Amino acid sequence: MSKPVQNPKTREWQAMSRDHHLAPFSDFKQLAEKGPRIITRADGVYLWDSEGHKILDAMAGLWCVAIGYGRKELAEAASRQMQELPYYNMFFQTATPPALELAKVISELAPAGMNHVFFTGSGSEGNDTMLRMVRHYWAIKGQPNKKVIISRLNGYHGSTVAGASLGGMTYMHEQGDLPIPGIVHIPQPYWFGEGGDMSPEAFGIWAADQLEQKILEVGEDNVAAFIAEPIQGAGGVIIPPDSYWPRIREILAKYDILFVADEVICGFGRTGEWFGSDYYGNAPHMMTIAKGLTSGYIPMGGLIVRDDIVDVLNQGGDFNHGFTYSGHPVAAAVALENLRILREEGIVERVKAETAPYLQKSLQALADHPLVGEVRGVGMLGAIELVKDKTTRARYPSSQGVGMICRSHCFENGLIMRAVGDTMIISPPLVISKAEIDELVSKARTCLDLTAQALLV
Ligand SMILES: *Cc1c(COP(=O)(O)O)cnc(C)c1O
């Protein structure tokens, strides 16, 4: 389907890919045959590939480019910090100013009472840190048996061994003998896909009650924590029914276990609030962060920890965990500049008041399309369910790869939308304008039409 390559450099890069590179989450052999699309530059919400095509990036990279591409202030912050102090570690009772200043700024933005941050290089490392920290916490409290972490099927918590184990992607578990011991999963609150004949509200209660079932099955004395994304991102922008989080909060209040919010996607404004936990009124003990923290300009993640947990950790001596790049000064300087822009330009407030309502209203207009079973969204997150039958929610056979057909049409038509099975998802930069939203939705409609036509042949 893709157009023939014109630029000789494209062919060279594709040969390098085939001969030397192993790409993440890819079929190596298939990619070697086909060759990757080469992205060479970006500005605002647009990317350009090596063939000169302009593409509207409705995924903000991988959910991360909150402030859009091309902000020179971040490059300048990195350059200044590299010249002043490119690296020093935070081990052995030393520290560097950007990491400390960043920890303070994050504490100002985080929910009340969450005033400490452990820095990592990525979201996965943030969740590895969480796993070790919650077990250490319970050991300090004299309850070393509280080790089990309850997570959700089809949740995504990263791709390290702990991250993929916490995640509930069974195709990830199949490789590498995962999950590791001490991690168990409960069903997800995905009404459209799994709610059957139940109403969304009843299904939300049912899905939340699975947490209580699991706590009782494993035994409260063995459970360390429950981890969940406020809205599942990689699983397909799964927005729980309104009944879900209130019921989860009721259950968590009954049992002595920690609550961890994986805010790697929802954090830093994606829902129109600073954190997804603010959006839902949840009060976690810990929050994993990454992605929007630096708008993806440089890798960085972390774990925000509530004061009462820190009080206990303070009694526990050394925490034997950390990374060479924990609190990396250049990453921290870039994150500080990113957060300054998000705050001073009122970007999160604008998302909430103007652009997210506009995006959601515009996306809803696609619900009348014959292929579309549901359009849902919160803030700058959206999902479009592709179905064979709008009323029964019946899918096309997976062998038809409807989502992939649609994704290819998007690529060909200058729009990046991702396909999770037959769910098309978007997560554009938070700075997307109303005119750019119009373009996004009109391109999406064109691609839905082309997909519908392709299915008739
Ligand atoms: C992306 C993601 C992660 C993993 O972050 P990496 O930086 O890729 O390690 C963890 N949790 C959620 C919710 C994510 O979306």
TrEMBL record:
<dbReference type="InterPro" id="IPR049704">
    <property type="entry name" value="Aminotrans_3_PPA_site"/>
</dbReference>
<dbReference type="InterPro" id="IPR005814">
    <property type="entry name" value="Aminotrans_3"/>
</dbReference>
<comment type="similarity">
    <text>Belongs to the class-III pyridoxal-phosphate-dependent aminotransferase family.</text>
</comment>
<protein>
    <submittedName>
        <fullName>Putrescine aminotransferase</fullName>
    </submittedName>
</protein>
<keyword id="KW-0663">Pyridoxal phosphate</keyword>
<dbReference type="InterPro" id="IPR015421">
    <property type="entry name" value="PyrdxlP-dep_Trfase_major"/>
</dbReference>
<dbReference type="GO" id="GO:0008483">
    <property type="term" value="F:transaminase activity"/>
</dbReference>
<dbReference type="InterPro" id="IPR015422">
    <property type="entry name" value="PyrdxlP-dep_Trfase_small"/>
</dbReference>
<keyword id="KW-0808">Transferase</keyword>
<dbReference type="Pfam" id="PF00202">
    <property type="entry name" value="Aminotran_3"/>
</dbReference>
<keyword id="KW-0032">Aminotransferase</keyword>
<dbReference type="InterPro" id="IPR015424">
    <property type="entry name" value="PyrdxlP-dep_Trfase"/>
</dbReference>
